Structure formats: structure tokens, C-alpha cells
């Protein structure tokens, strides 16, 4: 089976992008949280996003109840944006080395937005996580959408495309 | 509870905002929003640029969540909102369109970002999200103290001339705004003309802007403040391209990075526009818009009061004229009735109502040797096309006075009392009326 994510897309979402996630509760009220790093499995059939459980408490609670998730990835320099959706998100504990992984992503993203005048302290604050609060949101990518501003925004990208 | 007033700094752009919605199936959707715009304490408007999943979702279920962030302190807020309506035109639409044009050119998206509508949302709740908040590196200077001092200065003004100059001087001295101008609405209501400016090489007094053209024209047409925080080709006034002789070059900055125009109205009627600009990006924030809008209200009433005051003194007897020195060659003054334009020698001076006034003064001078005039007689003169109410006569006389000051050492106007002035002629005149072509 062709994975939903292409190699280029997988590389993109693991790059120095801005990551956000959305979930919803029983009443279909939505919530948004920041992702602190992203990993894609070798077979590109699993996405895992690092979040801070305390800062993203409502999202984590909603995903524990039901795993419908939308994740958005955007590269500030080019506005290139992808959205990936999944129906089987689950919350998993962090592993040793994840603090370093979050720090590496933070540093890479800080470099990205420094050109727009944002300081490293700003990025530190935006992507800050409380000690011991890191956890993973893992899901199978079910659909990928183009969201770069323009006439193709919102278009579903076919697997392997 | 937090209102939208508390989080306006997050709506200046900087950090992109996101909106989350939910589809019929229950799948969440996340989309970046180019602009979350302040409407009032309970409402925001989101830029609608593309038909997308968000649109499909809110038309079905109006509930959504918006996340905004402050680009200086990194504090983030979650807004629970409910979609109400889309405005495809009007003041709110124009405010957002201008702002979006600035953002688009700043981010290299000019031509991609096109506003289709202003999506108005009711804000149900605002919640600060947990996370570190940075201290402001340079706290914004408070704008109420300078606004108060400006009000005191305005209250002390005794004439329109003084009022306009002190207002623009105050903008520089009290607010640090170096480039500013005041434009008045033309009697026909289709154009604005500059009556005062500050911070430019040439004053540009008498230069005109059509209603709907650029930041100033749109502000007047829609009667709403228009503010751009970044340069946009769509809103920059051309490099003083002067097509005909009867045009006074626009004095404004060639490449302003920030622009703000605020309409001046009183008694429900548009009087003009207060315009400021800067070579710096993001020079004016929501607070500046507030301060200048409040100032414009004061200014509108002050202008109205001073204009009424202008007629207060009864007409005195016409004084004898000092004859112009007869030993000099006559200055030819040409008048074109079709647009009331007046030329001194070969140089364009003025047109419109101010031109008609000037021609009447010159004819009276030539015929009777009169030099003393009153506002009241001008108002009653059938040869001057003033509307019955709100004639802006004071502003017209001020415009004429300033144009003469700038363009001629031989002719001038001098205030001699309330609602009275003198025509000063320092050279013999030859008046020529040029019939329509």
C-alpha cells in the first residue's frame, strides 16, 4: 500500500516548521495546541508529535477520549503549509532523549523565525514545556491536505503524489 | 472576563493565528488565518480569502476556536467564537482589505492574498493559555497623556489657521508623529484637498485626493480609520505624477511604510481626514488609531465652532484701498470659469470654490478699488458656488491664503478681524477671463 505521506512531505513535517494540533470534544468543540517536534516512522505510516501535557491539557484529554486529530505544519519563510488528519491518535509517554529532541526543534525553528525579528527567548517561550510533561501524540496519517495560501489551498493530496 | 479590547496587541499580525473547526463527520480542521481583526469588545472579523474547509464547516456549524499570540510577549489566547455573517464590502471590509494588502506585500504574498469578505464572529470567551510571558523590551508609551495635552492646545485655539497648525505641531511634539496632513472635503463631496501639512519638503496645500483613492480616499469614503503597518503598492500615492498644470503635487512620502487615515466628522457630516505616515514599519498600532480617532472628534467640533465664529463680527464700512504701485508692469491673472481655476502669469494658483472667491475679490478690487472683505458677503455672493449649509468657507479662505503665501509675493490675504480680511495687491493687475474651450 502506498503511504499517505510522500517522502518529501515526511521530510517537510520533520523540518523547522511551526506545528499545531487540533482535537474536539464530545460536543464537537475544538481545541488547539502547539507541537514541539515531529517524527515520522520509517514506513511513513505513523506520525508522532511531541506536546507538553500541561500546556496542551484539553487536547491531550480529548485525544485520550477519542483520537480524531488534525495537525498543521507551516514553514514561515515560504508559507508552505500541510495539514495531516488521523482518526486513531493516542497519547504515549515520552522517552529518554525527547527533551533534547524538543530542544533541537526549538533551536531550528528559532533560526527560521529569527529573520522576521523574533528572538531566541521568544521561541523558547512559545515552545516551552514544563519539566516531566512531554508526551507523544501518535497517529496514522489518513489524509494529507495542501494548505499553502493560494488557489490550491484545501486540496487533498493523493498518496504518493 | 477578558474582552477583545484586552488582546488587541495580538491582532496586529506578527504571529500567525489559527482557526479550528469541526466537520459534519466530527473531524477537526486547522487553518491559518491571515488576519484576525478587532471589531469591538465582543466581536472579531477573520479574513475570508479562499473557499476552504473552514468555510464549509462554519456555514454548517458556526462554532470555532481561534488561537492568537502576542508577537512581543509570546502570550497566547484561545478565543471561543461563533460565526455570524460575511461582509463583502463596507467600512470593516475596507479596513481589513487595506491591512491585508500591507501584510501581503510584507510577506511576499501580494497577488495571492485577496480579501473576499470580512467574516464577523461573536467572541464567546477568551482564555489565556498556560505558558511563559515575556516582559516587554520597550513598553509602549502611553497615549492618553499626549491626547489630553493636545485637547488643551486645541481648546486654546482662536482660529482655523492656528487650530490646524497647532494640531499637526502637536502630533510631532506630543506623539512623535513627524509626517502629517489635514485634508478637507470638497463641496462636491468627491474630493479632498490638503489645507495643512507638516514634515514635508513642500506643503502641498491645495493638492487633491479623490474619494476612494488610497488610504485617505477610502477612509473618507467609508468614514472609517484605515491603517497600514507595511508598505503596499495598492495604497501608495503615485510619485506626484502631475498630469495637468492645474494640479498641485502631492506632498506625501514616496514610500511610506506605515499609514493611518482617520475621518473627521461633526454633526453627522464628514469634514475631512487627518492623515499620518511614517518611514518605519508598524509605526501605528490600535492605540494610535484610538488616539487619533478621539483627536479627530475634538478637531471636527473645533473646526465647526471656529467656522461659525468666523461670521461673528458685523460688516464694517469698506476701507479705502492702498493703490498698488503703478510704476510696475501689470501681472496678468487668468481665470477659467469652467473649473474656477486661476493662474498668476503662467503659474497655476488654485481652482474650485477658492478660485471663484479669489476671482470675485480681484474683480471687486479692479472695479471699485476695494480691499476689505467679510466672510459674510462671500457667503451671500451668488457668483461663489457654496452650498447652503456646511460651506467650509473658512477652510477655503485658509487654502487660498496659504497658496498665495507660497506662490506669490505680489498678492496676499490678511486677517483684519473676526470674519474680515484684506486683499493685499503689490503690483498692478490685468484680469483676463478665458471662455471655455
From TrEMBL, chain B:
InterPro entries: GAF (IPR003018), GAF-like_dom_sf (IPR029016), Pyridox_Oxase_N (IPR011576), Split_barrel_FMN-bd (IPR012349). It comes from the Bacteria. Residues 159-313 form the GAF domain. This is GAF domain-containing protein. It comes from Solimonas fluminis. Transmembrane segments: none annotated.
